[in-house]
User: Fold this.
Amino acid sequence: MEKLRVLELYSGIGGMHYALKESGIPFEVVAAIDINTSANQIYSHNFPDTPLWNKTIEGITIDDFNKLSFDMILMSPPCQPFTRIGLQGDIADPRTKSFLYILDLLPRLCRLPRYILLENVKGFEVSCARERLVKTLEECGYTFQEIMVSPTSVGIPNSRLRYFLIAKISTEDCSQISDAFPHPAERESEPEQPDPVLNPLRPGSSQPEGGGCVLYKLETTEDAQRKKDQNNDLSVRQVQDFLEAQQDVVMETYVLAPKTLLRYALLLDIVQPTCRRSVCFTKGYGRYVEGTGSVLQCCTETEMESVFSGLDLYSEEDKLQRLLKLQLRYFTPREVANLMGFPQSFSFPEQIATKQRYRVLGNSLNVVVVSRLLQRLLS
Ligand code: SAH
Assistant:
């Protein structure tokens, strides 16, 4: 099989590139394009031989694209205009401009790429940008399929429900895609996470809505049941399979500060190593607490319930002593990368700070999910 010539747009840290590798498809990334400096440093650190263009997509001419003569486009356009809790600027948002430029360009290329894969957030499926995409694909003669999928479908204990579109330029139908995932439909009801930027740390801002009796830790009976069901799903691996060796984790760097514990304990999503779930890691992880990703309970002898029930009745000092018993820490960037399906060969250049690492990972995608979609697209 001849190598597919792949154009990787909005390449970030190369999640798509890793997914291609993982899929086993013979390929060559003919150009990766992104304007984020740290993401680009990480990309070229890991893929020194791939041409990486530090340019805005809308600044690249059709001639330049034609010269690349690519067979496939992989892209994750900026998702902020489409997030459910964001402002939903959609096609009016300046961040969508480059995507509209691609849609405008596609029908005018000398040769249409055979395959396209697009990733975006939940919310994209109801956007005008999606309507324009579908219209363009239909006009160009693509068949396509849209699917919402989360890494739990491939046995990874992390929620990251995303919209995917895979398109093929042929008369062949690619409607079998959902077979790639054991139980996609039942995974779709993931709880929404607040936007860390729009809802920065505000104590008490997570009051449960819409009924359900509150147990402890602002959790409703439904929340508790959902977590329990997730932890009992043996098709998903345990969080501990994705952790670094404890002796390799510099605890001082990752442990939650007393201030954070006291203010935000009730808002934390806490998981134990034996859990089969964790919430989506976003770019604010390590900076904001609410809705940015789970934290790990390192001391498993302490029962969560014993720490949290009646917590408010204690003095600040006693409260802190109780909370400290759980030994809560953030997942390290390596562990977040593991939960996002990045292989061991992926690494960060030393100069990239921890917060920056979380930031770029939060923008990236689950490598295993995308590699399955690619296999399906080409099968
Ligand atoms: N899939 C990528 C991340 C995509 S996030 C990964 O695996 O890491 C979207 C990326 O698009 C960001 O890295 C951002 O820097 C880049 N971007 C946004 N607007 C752009 C534009 N107009 N031209 C080029 N890159 C852009």
Summary: Residues 176-180, 182-189, 194-210 have pLDDT under 50 and may be disordered.
